[in-house]
Design goal:
single chain, Alpha-Beta Plaits, TIM Barrel, 8-stranded parallel barrel, 4-stranded antiparallel beta sheet, 34% helix, binds phosphoenolpyruvate, binds manganese (II) ion
Amino acid sequence: MIIVLRSEATQKEVDEVVARLKNLGFGAHVSRGVERTIIGAIGDEREVDLEEKIGVLPFVERVIPVLAPYRLTSREFRPADTVVKVGEAEIGGGKVTVIAGPCAVESEKQILEVAHRVKEAGAKILRGGAFKPRTSPYSFQGLGELGLRLLARAREETGLPIVTEALGVEELSLVAQYADAIQIGARNMQNFRLLEAVGKLRKPVLLKRGMMSTVDEFLMSAEYVLAQGNYQVILCERGIRTFEPSTRNTLDLSCVPLIKSRSHLPIVVDPSHGTGRSDLVEPMSLASLVAGADGLIVEVHPNPVEALSDGPQSITPFQFSSLMEEVKKITRLLGKEI
Ligand code: PEP
Ligand code: MN
């Protein structure tokens, strides 16, 4: 249930609703907007009639049942767009923010070169995996902590904040020591213990859609993070598995406006994993922005043919610069800022 208080409700009244909810066995998440305060009640609504117990209070405007299986993630809970800050970069709320970097950190030379080049071209956040979720146990698994140290070095040199993946709860605190935002990969979208663990941190989370997950499952995974008190979640559409073998995944761009209508969280699109083909990265990046995405996450490698992972979908720094020129044009046309 979502409880909307009248615009003139005082702090004492907000506290009273929270206390009543607690007595009834509900958790309460308070969201203060400019116009009104909204309280998300978390608990079993079949047991208690909140309309009767809370809706009768004079300072409560409405009690809205939430039909969706997520609450804090829903638009009803927070009508305005959430803006997530990663370092100095902002994602959401009328901006287009581009995250770029290699699939995996491979060497100091590689990550520093990419970091400088993507920054010059206009990227606001650097990506790079230190712990890689590879389908085969014999493929390159990432440089581990050394990779994290190299990312930190690249941040020092360029000022770009970094996003990197944590594969499991065990290495989360190590990754969190270095990262400005923690990536939860597609294969871990329903690793509920990991979601709860990042929910307990106070760091932004880039949550990728599972390759076989529905939009509602995706939003419920985000709910796991928000339910622990961490509202800094950036959603990422990265393609889903279909019968089409010509592309690595099928980029589901229809989910972007759909998610925008259902949730206040920002959403970025990953055209690299979404297509698996470097030649499709630019057209799908532009299409993503037209569909309403708040940004992009793009794989860039100085020499894609030699890349230790995801070479076929990686673009060169030169191609990235020309992509950014097009991104800037579309951003202007959309009346957004970059
Ligand atoms: C990645 O971003 O390099 C990655 C492994 O992505 P995904 O989890 O979407 O496959
Ligand atoms: Mn990759």
